[in-house]
Amino acid sequence: MRRTTSRLLRGIALVSALALGSTACGSSDDSADQKPVSAGDIQAALKKGGTVTVWAWEPTLKTVAADFQKKYPKVKINLVGERSGDKHYTALSNALSAKKGVPDVAQVEYFALSQYSLTKGLSDLAPYGADKLKDKYTPGPWNAVSEGDAVYGLPMDSGPMAMFYNKKIFDKYKIAVPTTWDEYVEAAAKLHKADPKVYIANDAGDAGFTTSMLWQAGSRPYKVDGTTVNVDFSDAGAKKYTATWQKLIDDKLVSPINGWTDDWYKGLGDGTIATLTTGAWMPANFVTGVPQAAGDWRAAPMPAWTKGEKASAENGGSSLTLPELGKNKELAYAFVEYANAGDGVQSRVKEGAFPATTADLQADSFLNKEFEYFGGQKANEIFADSAANVASDWSYLPFQQYANSIFNDTVGKAYISGTKLAEGLKSWQEASVKYGKEQGFTVK
DSSP labels for 384-409? Predict the structure, then answer.
């Protein structure tokens, strides 16, 4: 994952959500009765060979595909990677609906996974032995791909959160690195008072960031049990978040710049945006997008809601799945396991991917890596600690794509009008409930 979830969803085509939502409460071809697939069956398929079509935008898979083909010369990996975000999901949903042109393997982000699994669009990988791989992964990603005894994908990467901060700016204004969100608000005020052009962060309203912040605060707004869904943004965790973040908005302490824009990169480069709280996949983006600030930035743990707490959250990350209507299932699963639990993981880590596998996160070579961009800091130590402290009980809606697409029409108003964040979350809740009911869900 190389950008925030909401960035990929901004302007998403609603055909994807509608196509899936319309079948929310009914499906056929349940894979629950599928017989176990033995290691011998998979090896036989690899020896026989065939073609596996993979729809995935993650760039490191190019190397993985090449390596896999060298190891299994009778297998051809047809990697289709020109689509991402809305185009990817629209194409996948349309193929599933038409029952034509469905890929054998599809990359699906964690937030969108339940939407496809609920409608029986994805194969359960447990019969292939995926359920035996649980201990290989950190809790957050594994929770995202599993449901009871079923496993609908193997985690490809993860986005445990950290706070990146401009040390040069913090040192210049003698600002201590905040360890709590209260300290963060205080630092924001000091920075902006010292230089009105400097903001502690940018935030113009971002669905992915907001849900990650709620996750860390202990809020659990979504509860999903099959087609029964509960949406509630009024719990104690949500109130923690809105009370704190409202202060930043009211006092105009966050820059109204959207992420992933030219102005955003400029702000990160010239120090007018002093922190960025996001997933551990971000370092490569600093190197390529903000080269002029090399040496200025550092990584730090995500500020805590209560001093001493280590709770974190995920932001971004995706899995590789086997669409139910795909072909060559044994070959497809072999590739997915190779890429996400086998030799392919190290290949991807070497090219900058952030792993979801515990062994790789704990490896000395990973933890001791010095990031030249961050002044030689061993930033992976911070990211790995964050990954270990992500609560595993978070759920997304089975129509999260649609919910995120209306974020700016509800919560987003708090950034451009007198609407309060709490009011915006209530509007988001109401709109999400309305849509869920229209699509046949039982929504409370």
Answer: HHHHHTB-S-----TTHHHHHHTHHH
Gap between the Cα atoms of 101 and 342, Å rounded: 28
Q: Which residues are CB-neighbours of 381 under 8 A, at least 6 positions away?
A: 367
Q: What are the two backbone dihedrals, phi and then psi, of residue 302, each rounded to the nearest 5 degrees?
A: -60, 135
In the three-class reduction of DSSP (H, G, I as helix; E, B as strand; rest coil), residue 187 is classed as helix
Tell me if 5-158+317-362 shares its fold with 161-313+394-443. yes
- Tell me the DSSP string of 105-155: EEEEEHHHHHHHHHTT-B---GGGTGGGGGGGB-HHHHHHHEETTEE--EE
Hey, what amino acid is at 212?
S
Q: Following DSSP, what letter does each residue of 6-40 receive, concatenated?
A: HHHHTT--THHHHHHHTTTT-----GGGPPP--HH
d(CA 366, CA 334): 26
Alpha-carbon span 154 to 141, nearest angstrom: 9
Q: What is the pLDDT along the chain (444 residues), one digit of tens a residue?
A: 433 333 333 323 333 333 343 334 333 344 446 789 999 999 999 999 999 999 999 999 999 999 999 999 999 999 998 776 778 999 999 999 999 999 999 999 999 999 899 889 999 999 999 999 999 999 889 999 999 999 999 999 999 999 999 999 999 999 999 999 999 999 999 999 999 999 999 999 999 999 999 999 999 999 999 899 999 999 999 999 999 999 999 999 999 999 999 999 999 999 999 999 999 999 989 999 999 999 999 999 999 999 999 999 999 999 999 999 999 999 999 999 999 999 999 999 998 899 999 999 999 999 999 999 999 999 999 999 999 999 989 999 999 989 999 999 999 999 999 999 999 999 999 999 999 999 999 998
Neighbour count for residue 83 (Cβ, 10 Å): 16
DSSP tag of 323 = B
CATH (residue range 161-313+394-443)? 3.40.190.10
- Say which amino acid occupies 168: K
In angstroms, rounded to a whole number, what is the distance separating the alpha carbons of residues 92 and 108?
A: 10
Domain ranges of the chain: 5-158+317-362, 161-313+394-443
Rounded distance, CA 183 to CA 166, Å?
Answer: 16
Which CATH superfamily includes the segment(s) 5-158+317-362? Periplasmic binding protein-like II (3.40.190.10)
